[in-house]
Design brief:
The protein is of the alpha/beta class and 465 residues long. Helix content is 28%, strand content 25%. It has 2 domains: 156 residues, Lyase, Ornithine Decarboxylase, Chain A, domain 1, CATH 2.40.37.10; 257 residues, TIM Barrel. Bound molecules: pyridoxal-5'-phosphate. Pyridoxal-5'-phosphate (PLP) binds next to helix 10.
Length: 465
Amino acid sequence: MSRSAHPAGPRHADVLPEGGPAAAPADLNRLDGRVWPGGAARDPDTGALTFAGIDVRELAREFGTPAYLIDEDDWRRRARAWVEAFGADADVFYAGKSFLSVAIAKWAAEEGLHLDVCSGGELAVALRAGFPAARLGFHGNNKSVAELERAVAAGVGRVIVDSHDEIERLAALAAEHGVRQRVMVRVTAGVEAHTHEFIATAHEDQKFGFSLAGGAAAEAVSRILKHGEHLELIGLHSHIGSQIFDTAGFEVAAHRLTEALAAIKRDHGVELPELDLGGGLGIAYTEADDPAPVVETARRLKEIVARECDAAGLAHPRLSVEPGRAIAGPPGITLYEVGTVKPLPGLRTYVSVDGGMSDNIRTALYDAEYTVRLVNRESTDEPMLSRVVGKHCESGDIVVRDAWLPADTAPGDLLAVAATGAYCRSMASNYNHVLKPPVIAVRAGEARVIVRRETEDDLLGLDLG
Ligand SMILES: *Cc1c(COP(=O)(O)O)cnc(C)c1O
């Protein structure tokens, strides 16, 4: 592999575009422990990345690239940390939409998590895994009658209802099945949180939830209580956003939810036993992100709910939370091979990998930021301002917008992108008829394919000519 074929890319801080990347890190080989999974380390002899005890060059040879790798111990450790931090008087629902497979559902069950699904497909995966139905929550603003029926028949522990239409459908289905389905009402608390800020007066022009302020939530509660024979209202639910780094937004939401619980007690004489604050806790995609430890988050959320309920004269409801990214994101990385390196003089160097927006749509969709490292070897070459891009026919096909890679990065090298365990495989597409990568769980030096790579036969099997 030629190390001198790509000489002309800009390499120094003086060419940084405005609003562009932070200055190059001092050490391009370093793996920050907040960004990389616990099982990721440089082999002191070869400089290559070892992942849960296996050299990534070996993983690339055996399973090909691109590939999603999950550090199974790290995944389980994070799951356990959430369950333990929230304790016996709360429930932690893993948001399956972040990434769900049969193996993942089994890990979730084994580590004491509950599980949220939000489609018939996710429900099917959970049921295939034998996940205890009583520990399932079913979300969605437009669950079909068939999906609701399947949930009721399976004995799903809670359906989080999101429309008046759904209330009527669900009541009818529960009656048909002769059951009393436990439900929560999803409310919009008028809080919207994203990353470092939250808006306490977010307008409610969105598809999810019943408005607290506008009275739709109160109306939904009344209708459910009227269907009391077949619907058991257990509480209120709110989800305020994603990639949130402090509890200020949750505090405002909890205050408004507690007011609503007090109003329900006043109007209907019932004290709802549960409260769900949703998910959205942030993770470190880059060294600039600094999420609080989960024990800290748990302590604050429980404190907030206790204080609000005391002030409103309510018994403390059983709390639930729904982390997705915070459990599944950090343990996962994506391994790519570099195919082409294109220096654009005066701009930057485009480094193309063998995947892209089909395996990670988040950069194109949300301007997400990621950390990328050269991982088949170390390099002491100088930093090269780069953009890691995919192989799709779309100029927005960017994996890492602003990256510093060693200037000798060349075709055949392996790159790893950190924190891709959530919302990458689960949002993967077949754009350009590119095949979806496999998901490989690695634990104590053993690698296991938990979702195999798609094949051309898989793709062509759908095409009936
Ligand atoms: C997406 C979602 C979550 C999980 O969000 P994360 O950012 O992955 O923690 C939890 N609850 C609901 C209702 C969601 O829509």
